[in-house]
Amino acid sequence: MRFKFLPSFVKRKGRITSKQSKYLKYLSEFSICDLSDLKNFSNGFNKYSLEVGFGNAENIQAEALNNPDTLFVGSEVYVSGIGSLIAFIKENDIKNIRIFADDIRLLLDNEAIEIFDSVKIICPDPWPKEKHHKRRLINSSFIQMLQCFMKKDSILYISTDWKNYADSISEILKGSIFFKPSSNYFIPRTQLSKFERMGEIEGRQIFEFNYEKVS
Ligand SMILES: C[S@@+](CC[C@H](N)C(=O)[O-])C[C@H]1O[C@@H](n2cnc3c(N)ncnc32)[C@H](O)[C@@H]1O
Fold first, then answer.
1. pLDDT tens digits, residue range 20-32?
2. Residue 78: inside a domain
3. Cα 126 from chain centre
4. Mean pLDDT of the chain
5. Which of 123, 145, 189 is the pocket-test mutation for ligand 1 (most atoms within 8 Å of CB)?
6. Which has the closest alpha carbon to 104: 213, 195, 25, 8?
7. Which domain holds residue 60?
8. 44 vs 147, which has greater pLDDT?
9. Which of 28, 86, 106, 162 is geometrically suited to a Cys-Cys bond with 126, CB 3.0 to 4.6 A?
10. Helix or strand or coil: residue 185?
11. Which CATH number does the domain housing residue 95 bear?
12. Could you give the number of structural domains in the chain?
């Protein structure tokens, strides 16, 4: 199963701090293996949101604090970021975050459940060299897979600071029968992410996509 997909990430271990290492031991308290597990946590939540590749977890943390009625699922393979998110959950007694600590495609390669009201992918790995474009997470088959887990009228938000990835995402979304650009909704972003900040410092523009699932 793991080798069904080309890796869309380079598994960065990063430096794991003693705090992250301490909190990583609690991962099983917050992790999900299957989206049907969410039913066990659904009490009191009226919305579900997915963030793919949450990195150092700044965005998911801010959103979970601001939206206590929404259950946030964060998917990431970057162990240091997962440790930071668990530390935040434990230290702030956060009830509305669950973690899928693996390739999101393994979670979605299952029976469809139209569960998410919003999905965010902030700065997916750009794989800027042409020979690596095939490793990019956002492609037609991923979008097809993802839409199976999104409710009708739900929002898909993607940002990237790489122009040729933005062009490709734009083509993929325009060609999808499942999505249309959304003018009615905008998913508020509280801050730029670490990778967006780096992109700006390096002089790149940030491109944003805000689409709505139509069927
Ligand atoms: C460029 S970083 C962006 C991190 C963060 N969103 C930000 O903007 O600061 C992309 C992140 O996506 C994660 N990622 C890439 N492919 C993934 C996949 N298939 N499933 C889950 N996470 C993935 C990587 O581990 C990495 O942390």
1. 999 999 999 999 9
2. yes
3. 15
4. 93
5. 123
6. 8
7. 28-204
8. 147
9. 162
10. coil
11. 3.40.50.150
12. 1
